[in-house]
Amino acid sequence: MTEQTDTQDSSPPKAGAIIVPVTLFEQNCTIIWDEPAKKAVVIDPGGDVPKILDAIKQTGVTVEKIWLTHGHIDHVGGAAELRDALKVPIEGPHEADKFLLDNVVESGARFGMTGVRNFAPDRWLNEGDTVSIGDLKFDIFHCPGHSPGSVVFFNKALRFAHVGDVLFAGSVGRTDLPGGSHATLISSIKTKLLPLGDDVGFICGHGAGSSIGQERMTNPFITGEM
């Protein structure tokens, strides 16, 4: 479990976050909370639910929601189990990923993941929607390409985003899975994420986070297609 402090801001609202790498995919399950109420959301519980629950306990937060960036097994494998354990709603992704959530068991079997379940979220998310946890409000951007229903969560006040597998430090999401499209992904990044501003920091689905400005300048998948 590694600490993430990029969401800190000198003026209200206040927030904290930790990243809990889960499963063999080393997926960045992320817990974000508002201060001082310690109301929290878990983003993309891909598996290893006991590990996630232990991180929640150690952090001392009260989880009120689960948010999903998209429907791939490494991001949703533990969602149904965690929802049952915490008795909280699941919000996201976009409904275009319904075919993935309807086939979680089949997807898990291909990677030897047992105990996973097909499920539906309590709320699908669309472009222009907002979600909140405590005093933290996030705008929703529908960013297809990696998957048809990928969404990004953006908090304007904190200059912070969780981008799932849309954008990485030095790379972009893979597009060779069902429903993927490289051209669509690059369009999502250029029309939805780059305009957020170079000062916006982000957590992504795997590996280290980055900033929009850093990726605009150095990410070969963006600079090569500007």
UniProtKB/TrEMBL annotation:
What cofactor is this protein dependent on?
Answer: Zn(2+)
Q: Which domain of life is it from?
A: Bacteria
UniProt cross-references to InterPro entries, sorted A to Z: MBL_Glyoxalase_II, Metallo-B-lactamas, RibonucZ/Hydroxyglut_hydro
Key words of the record:
Hydrolase, Metal-binding, Zinc
What residue stretches are annotated with the Metallo-beta-lactamase domain?
26-206
Which CDD domains does its entry note? YcbL-like_MBL-fold (cd07737)
Protein name stated in the entry: MBL fold metallo-hydrolase
Lineage of the species this protein comes from:
Bacteria, Pseudomonadati, Pseudomonadota, Alphaproteobacteria, Hyphomicrobiales
